[in-house]
Amino acid sequence: MINMPAMSANRRNRSRSFRAAVRAVQSLFRSEPKAVGRIAALASAMVVTCAAAAEGQRAPAAGGELLYNGIQLPKEWPPKTPIRDRSVRPVPYLMAPPAVIPIDVGRQLFVDDFLIEKTDLNRTFHRAQRFEDNPILKPETELEKKGPVATLFNDGVWFDPTDQLFKMWYHAGWFDGTAYATSKDGFKWDRPNLDVVPGSNRVLPKEGHGNRDGTAIWLDLFETNPEQRFKMYIYERPKETYGGRIFTSGDGIHWTDKGLTRVGDGDNTTFFYNPFRKKWVYSIRLYRMGRARDYWETDDITKPAHTQTSDHSPWVSVDELDKPDPGLLALMPSAAEIQQEALTNKTVAELTTYYRSLYGDPPQLYNLDAVGYESVMLGVFSILKGPTSSKGWNKHKMVKINDLEFGYSRDGFHWDRPDRTPFLSSTRKEGDWDRGYLHTTSGICAIVGDKLYFFYGGWSGIGPKGPDVYSGGAIGLAFLRRDGFASMDAGEEAGFLTTRPVTFQGKHLFVNLKAPGGELRVEALDEQGRVIAPFSMDNCIAVSGDTTRQRVAWKGASDLSKVAGTKVRFRFQLRSGELYAFWVTPDAGGASFGYVAAGGPEFKGPIDNGKQ
């Protein structure tokens, strides 16, 4: 039984009721993973209307853009709902999913309950594994000795299918240059001697570009103009002279300055491409209850923009589920020390609030990068645990401590963050190359065979003269199974998962499955929940083993052509295994026709279309 607060007649009580409802639903998700059906029924019946009431608005009007997955956006998009506190923001499409979900685009992941009508399987979220020989690139050249720094400060790592190389742009020398390296395998990197600044691998000269800060580089394989395949946003200091600028390039080495771009003054602003809506999005750094993000979208990132805060949509901040690090809070001055300081500076209450904030209570959202991966937008949330300013860094001679966490979006704006355990954490250990200040990169991950490669920057905080918050930057690599963000699991006793009604035009069902000692069977159900012959459990040829791409077949049918274009529920029966994804495709080889993030050797473009 779910105990839900009753809604009051006045707006304040409606708002309180709504927030309590959201917390109750989230709590149930975490404590009772098998309660998906009850949660969905509750959400569909109550929460959307309640959400609108909480903001004093009408429920969103239909008639906006219809997305690839059946989600209908409201006419006014993106939303401009203010962020007033640290309450968890609702995700509308999870509270009221489409009645029928098209699944023609990409592998269908189990990172949330969007696709699930009911199940007694258990969801497990998985962590990335660091490469044992990290770092894969560290400061070695004259350019990189300032700091020393040779790291990812977002920047970019992409696989370029044109010449079958991994290409990396990275922060070389603290606040100094943007450099370029290439690799055939993602492990061993070459620094070419470029003609931009002879004798170095710089892609921008120091003269005329100030001191570089946050940077994002994108390989745009949708671009029809060969001179604009690569796109870069760079924040150059001093902002009064330089600020944010957009560049384009045909080779990633020689760049054309497209002009000053002012989309807020945040020094760690980045951008990304949403391929599902064909929109470029600025992830704008600003301060709202600490570091946070605003959203602004455009059709053409190469045109310099000049926006005001009022043009942006309040987007994401940390919320009440983001918890402080006890180890950092332990660095706070004692109550007696605060009492003594209060004799000459502020009140005890003011100082306590200040120091709690300094040591990460609450944490802050340092950055948000995103990329299209299969059927979702994959986001990496950089959660700053502390210290949050130089007073803490300098006093304790330590780097900023932040962790990287996944988030998932199916409309490109609202994020579901079901697991607040980092997929990559700062080690927090003095002497480690990645003690803190972790940064992901534009593109987030590459797909190499059955693995995802995550390139990331980390900092030791150790320079030539000892501890220094902005010293010791290097680059590492971590791995995750392909589609391995979350799995639906069963033990020795078989469990079941039934999808919501879906439609597809393909005819071959594939799964990503780890069940070397178990098995998976699947059946297709009609709108009334009846088995569609011959696609029954009994006719299904059991699937086992450990593979990221396995076709499912039935006796008496060559494929799913019979039910293509109709409403179907899939019912999975799993024993002793982990189910990561499923998809239906017209390609007998298993191409998903989803998006492939930063690419990989298997792909000739931004989509997995089976063409190698």
Characterization of this structure:
With 612 residues, this protein is mainly beta. The chain has four domains: 11-98, no CATH class; 129-318 and 367-481, Tachylectin-2, Chain A; 326-359, no CATH class; 486-593, Jelly Rolls. Helices cover 12% and strands 36% of the residues. It contains seven helices and 36 strands. The strands form eight sheets. Strands 2, 3, 4, 29, 30, 32, 33, 34 and 35 form a nine-stranded antiparallel beta sheet that branches. A hairpin with a 2-residue loop joins β26 and β27 (466-467). α1 (11-31) packs antiparallel against α2. The chain is globular. It starts with 10 loop residues before the first helix and ends in a 16-residue tail after the last strand. Residues 1-61 have low confidence and may be disordered.
User: How many strands, what sense, and barrel or not for the largest sheet?
Assistant: 9 strands, antiparallel
Low-confidence stretches: 1-61
Shape: globular
Count of alpha and pi helical runs:
7
Name of the CATH first level of the largest domain = Mainly Beta
Number of E-type strands = 36
Cα distance, first to last residue?
Answer: 52 Å
In helices, the fraction of residues equals 10-25%
Write out the CATH superfamily name of the largest domain: Glycosyl hydrolase domain, family 43
Number of domains: 4
**Overall pLDDT confidence:** 91
CATH topology of the largest domain: Tachylectin-2, Chain A
